[in-house]
Amino acid sequence: MTDLLQQDRNEGQRRLAFLVLLGITAAMLLVMVVRGTYLYHQVNEAHAKSAAEKPRLEKDPMGEDKPREAASASMEQFWEAYRTDPIFLWALVNAGLLGIGATLFYTLTRPSAATGEAMVAPPWQLLFLGVGGVIGFATTCFLGIGYVFKYWNEWSQGLKVWRELWPWWIVLAIVGGLMVTFISLISVRSLEQDHPGLRRLIYGYNAVLMGFLLLAILIVFNVLVLYFGPATPTDWTASNIYSISPESKKQLAALDKEVIVYVMLGRDPLGEDVEHLLSTCQTVTKKLKVEKLHPNLMRDQEKIDSLLKQYGLLFQEGLLLVYDPQGENLFVQIKRTGEGADDLALEDAPRMGRDLPNFRGEQAIISAIRQFREGKTAATIYFTQDSGEMSITDFSKNARGQLSGFDRGLGSLKSRLEKRGYTIKEWKLGMIDEQTLAPALIPSDASLVVVADPSATIGTDNKIKALEEYLQRPNGKMIILLDPRTSSSGEIMPTGLEKLLERYGVQVGQDIILHPPYQELSNPTMASIVLADNADTALRQAFIEQSQQVIGFMMFNVRTVRPIPGHVGHDVKPLLETNQLLNIGAGQWPETELKGDPRAFVDNLRKNQLGDLNLKMRSPSVPVAVTVRDKGTQLPPTQPHLPPETKPGDPKMVVFGDATFVCNELVDQQVGEIIFYNLFASSVNWLRDKPIILDIAPKERKAYRPNMTRDTVESLKWWPIALLLVFVLVSGISVGMMRRR
Fold first, then answer.
1. Which band of pLDDT confidence, cut at 50, 70 and 90, is reported for residue 707?
2. Which positions ≥6 away from 70 have C-beta within 8 Å?
3. What is the DSSP string of 244-307?
4. How far is residue 447 from each of residues 130, 423, 427, 433, 609, measured CA to CA in Å?
5. What does the alpha-carbon distance between residue 302 and residue 306 come to, in Å, rounded to a whole number?
6. Long-range contact list for 115-122, CB < 8 A, 24+ apart?
7. Same domain, 37 and 130
8. Are 521 and 547 in contact (CB under 8 A)?
9. pTM of the model
10. Which long-range contacts (CB under 8 A, 24 or more apart) does 228-233 make?
11. What is the full DSSP assignment across 72-97?
């Protein structure tokens, strides 16, 4: 009778414990449903807010506007929200494991038919073991470690963010989960002698817990060192290439607005050097944000293309620094390699006899940041507009064909320059200063003045004096574009700028480049142009990089522009020249005696003066654009046996014997953007004030090589494996001998 009462009491406890387990499982299901509903509404609200910011109208297939349909959030958005929410996953895992545990509990606690005793353990102990183990495990993994992964990007920004994201609750979840699981196992410690399965579980958990606690101690120690240790990383390089100077720290600490650094480099030693240097810079200021974009990864290509389009750049490896992206939005591009000491570049160009090029990352980055702080990146370009020049407010195009002539608008060029951050203004050279009654001076904020195809009226004294005064300034720089203008009789007319340009070593020809038409509708003033072989290296390279390696193209209505032989005071070099055409029946030449329509003039030569025409077509190449620098200075030789070096003078002027290439019709064409716009933009970049390069010496990368033979180096690869095998063998023998004793 007593045994029957005891069995009934045990069965009642088993059923009650089973119901408690089902209740806990149901509670976890309820938490999962409540959290899932909350996430569902959150995703819908975020989607609705995003949809509200988009245009309300969209184009239908017929090209008409129709209301945009308010589509609901996609399944991918819901899936992303659910799979990344630690609380939802915590409840889901608990509900699933406890549901499985309920089935096992009911089976394992069922009394044996032979003895009437439970198969494994008393129901309450087994319930505490299962519920505590499952909930403790889920709490540690999902509420603890799960939130660490969720907020890791935010926490890595600094100690202040760490404190704002309540991390001690996460520490409590990790430690608390482990403790709950540990206590649940201790509760059945008395049964380990009778149940091998429980014994393995307890010992296995103890081993895992000790390993996890050791890992936690190491992580906590490293986190404490990270946030409370030295402010800057330790630089073990021989030349301290990852350290920054006091001047650099001063420039970084003075940053008042955010600077985003887009790193567009591959996984190579230079990319690693730049990454370490930027990490050091970020320890000085929190205003510096870094975003890494790998040029060869598809996931980064869209972002890179968007940046290049936004800032009007063509891709080249290096850095893009953007200052105050929500405000002034100034930017500087830093190239991977630089030729001269004044180039913003991350390293010197490779040279023969040098193992590794010098690292110039600190110099380039800090110089760009100084530009931002001093406002020297936003350049102002003035276009003269009162002598018949092409108009910056004219956006019209001439689509009737090249024979009827192109438009004279610069509106498209103006828009593209403004997108690159330039300020475009117009200036009237004939203005009179109301106070002094003298010709008004070009404003002091002018980074560059553009004179685009003026009439001869620009040659009046007042206008020439204004241009002369501007060019005499240290920062006076100019682009002059001179189409060959014709009189009513068809003769080429002077430009009015001849005498001014002669003072700078530039001779403007009173001519036009002609060639026999290739076909009936072709234009005889269309010239084949190439980059001059001896063009200024910096501008030549800049144009080739920007124009996708293009070095030959066609231009319309071109006149010659040449360096004056023997001129002193300025360094004048050809930039563009005509291409000498050697095919039969083809050729081009500068014509100085044009009268009337160019087509009729060439047809008359072909019909009546064929010998003269053939002679003209064999004319050599002639320059049609030149660059002007101030005279360079000689530097002492770096070594006694070497000749002295010459430091180039500052860029002063670019003179083109053509203005048509910057008109709206040509600039807006796809090929025109690649060639003509980039030809002008490269000239602007070349002429602009060079960035102020701080006096930070490039740092030498030192490569160390072991003084060993190749066989010795090869043998070193096998030593670690051999030592590891010996260690395992000795350890095994030692353990075996200890156990035998």
1. low
2. 48, 51
3. --HHHHHHHHT--S-EEEEEE--SSHHHHHHHHHHHHHHTT-SSEEEEE--TT-HHHHHHHHHH
4. 77, 10, 13, 21, 50
5. 6
6. 116/3, 116/7, 118/10, 118/14, 120/195, 120/197, 120/198, 121/188, 121/191, 121/195, 121/198, 122/10, 122/13
7. yes
8. no
9. 0.52
10. 231/283, 232/280, 232/283, 232/284, 233/276, 233/279, 233/280, 233/283
11. PPPHHHHHHHHHT-HHHHHHHHHHHH
- The pLDDT, as a whole number, for residue 436 is 76
Distance CA 253, CA 247 (A): 10
- Looking from the CA of 423 toward its CB, the CA atoms found within 13 Å total 14
Number of domains observed in the structure of the chain: 3
Domain final residue, candidates 179, 198, 228:
228
Are 425 and 549 in a shared domain?
yes
Measure Cα distances from 409 to 61, 293, 310, 392, 664 in Å.
34, 38, 23, 6, 6
pLDDT at 471: 92
Query: Residue 521: how many CB atoms within 10 A of its CB?
Result: 9
Tell me, yes or no, whether 489 and 606 share the same domain: yes
CA-to-CA dists, residue 681 to 399, 481, 677, angstroms: 24, 14, 6
Phi and psi angles of residue 396, each rounded to the nearest 5 degrees, phi first:
-70, 160
Contacts of residue 530, defined as CB under 8 A and 6 or more positions apart, other chains included, come to: 551, 552, 576, 577, 578, 579, 621
- Cα distance between residue 388 and residue 377, in whole Å: 31
For residue 643, give both structure tokens: 């000749």
pLDDT at site 548? 57
| 402 shares a domain with 350 | no
Angle of helix 196-228 relative to helix 167-186, nearest 10 degrees, comes to: 160
Q: What is the mean pLDDT of residues 46-55?
A: 65
Determine the pLDDT at residue 562: 94
CATH number for the domain including 492? 3.40.50.880
Q: What are phi and psi of 541, to 5 degrees?
A: -65, -40
Please write the tens of the pLDDT for every residue from 231-259: 556 666 666 677 788 778 888 888 888 99
User: Is there a domain that residue 545 lies in?
Assistant: yes
Please name the amino acid found at residue 352: M
Domain co-membership, 268 together with 174: no
What are 617-674's pLDDT values in tens digits?
888 899 999 999 988 777 666 666 666 677 788 899 999 999 999 998 888 887 766 7
Q: What confidence category does residue 445 fall into, taking pLDDT thresholds of 50, 70 and 90?
A: confident
CA 241 to CA 697: how far, in whole Å?
11
With beta carbons less than 8 A apart as the criterion, state whether 74 and 40 touch: no
The reply to whether 42 and 143 lie within a common domain is yes
What is the residue range of 257's domain? 246-374
Residue given tokens 């329509």 in the structure block: 597
* Domain presence at residue 182: yes
Residue 389: pLDDT band with limits 50, 70, 90:
very high
φ/ψ of residue 210, rounded to 5: -65, -40
Place of tokens 């910011």: 53
The rounded percent of the chain whose pLDDT value lies above 90 is: 14
What residue has token string 């180096």? 713
Give the residues across from 225 on adjacent strands: none
Residue 477 pLDDT more than 80? yes
- Indicate if 18 and 154 belong to the same structural domain: yes
Q: What is residue 78's predicted lDDT score, i.e. its pLDDT? A: 78
Closest CA to 227 of 308, 161, 140: 161
b vs e for 213-251, b when ≥16 Cβ sit within 10 Å of the residue's Cβ?
Answer: eeeeeeeeeeeeeeeeeeebeeeeeeeebbbbbeebbeb
